[in-house]
# Entry
Amino acid sequence: MDKQLLRREGFATIKAITPEEKANASVAICRQLADTRIFRTSDVIFAYLSLSSEPSLESLFSTYPQKRWGFSRINDEGLLEFHHVTSISQVAVGEYGIFEPDPEQCKKLTPEEADLILVPGVAFDATSGARLGRGRGHYDRYLSRITSATGPAHVMGVCFSSQLTELNPEEHDMAMDRIITEKGIAKSLT
# Structure
């Protein structure tokens, strides 16, 4: 599998989605997600602060403040971690130019605390649950550590339906339990 080519194709697919379509699809994804039993029964949700190419989960955060939200950041060692955020004021632009929790204000959460982990990506395979990320392996490394250590968290890929494609995962690529789009659950392995 030529991941560089697949990433270029994936980014071209995402770029073809207009800002209005992304906004509407993001609202629909949040609605679809909120309707799932897994979301409703999850107390601690690990999520991401979206880039312009990713579905926004902002409305979920604001609609469900009773949930404990952990948002992702890359630490000084280049590893993914999640911090408890209670207010958008605790978020700032980080070293990589993306919004992330301020570690001075937000307590780091342990992997064992997660009930549900929402994962962005460039492309997803609805048959295998495979995910193609941005190429730095942050989520694969994190998910491999927690899957072997804890296991109870549900891992759900979040994407626009046009990001679904056929992927041939490599051994180190972590599969999603489920994949959700604006059209609903595209893949459910459990």
Remarks:
- The chain has a mean pLDDT of 90.
- The domain at 3-114+129-166+178-188 is CATH 3.40.50.10420 (Rossmann fold).
- The helical segments are 3-15, 19-34, 37-41, 58-63, 138-149.
- The first strand starts at residue 44 and ends at 47.
